[in-house]
Amino acid sequence: MKAGQDDSLLRNGLAVHDRSPAHPPPSPHPSRRHFVPPQPSASWRIALPHSAAAVPVARALVRTALAELEHTADGDTAELLTAELVANAVEHTPGGSPIELVVELMPTGCQVEVHDPDPEPPGDLTRPGVEPPDPWQEHGRGLLLIRALSSSCGHRPTGSGKAVWFRLPAVPAQRRPST
User: Fold this and answer.
1) Could you give the residue ranges of the DSSP H alpha helices within the chain?
2) What angle do CA 79, 80, 82 make, to 5 degrees?
3) Could you tell me where the beta strands, DSSP code E, fall in 117-160?
4) For residue 165, which of 84, 61, 75 has the smallest C-alpha distance?
5) Burial (CB count <10 Å: 0-12, 13-18, 19+), residue 12
């Protein structure tokens, strides 16, 4: 994949949308190649109500996690994309069980996952839709935002439904706003 190129991948049976500019160098042992995500330096897991009230709670958790640790990922973007994932889970999944938010902070950035009870993959998360969203409609741009603003995103099955996730890279110190 070339730098900046938008591409959808399938890794170990998981749908992934990856916009990272570079991939790790090939392994000297091709038969041993596998994807190993970076280990989190801090993580949070919280059950959220299956209602619209979950959205501001999720945003606040992400904001607090990034601020308390003075993390280098872009907090505004993390909040926006988290709100989109949680709102989609509330709107498009059955309401019988809670939604779970998982936030992992790593030296290389952050990953946010939203777990919901519906095993059905999200619409056009890893592949752009055939038609662009209607600019006059209130809905239809959330997954587009996630694809456009994250370094990678995807979904995977879980024992109780699915997890939909995105990653944001760490922002270099010279590009961070001064406080």
Assistant:
1) 54-68, 75-92, 142-149
2) 65
3) 152-158
4) 84
5) exposed
Residues in the chain, how many? 179
Give the per-residue pLDDT at 31: 46
C-alpha neighbours within 13 Å on the C-beta side of residue 160: 11
Of 42, 54, 3, 11, the residue nearest 153 (C-alpha): 11
Q: What is the CA radius of gyration of the chain?
A: 16
Which mean pLDDT values do the consecutive 10-residue runs of the chain (179 residues) have? 40 48 42 49 90 95 82 87 94 86 91 94 68 59 84 93 94 61
Place of tokens 């270099």: 172
- 172 class by beta-carbon count within 10 Å (0-12 exposed, 13-18 middle, 19+ buried): exposed
> Two tokens at 90?
């509330």
Q: Say what the pTM is.
A: 0.72
The identity of residue 83, as a single letter, is: A
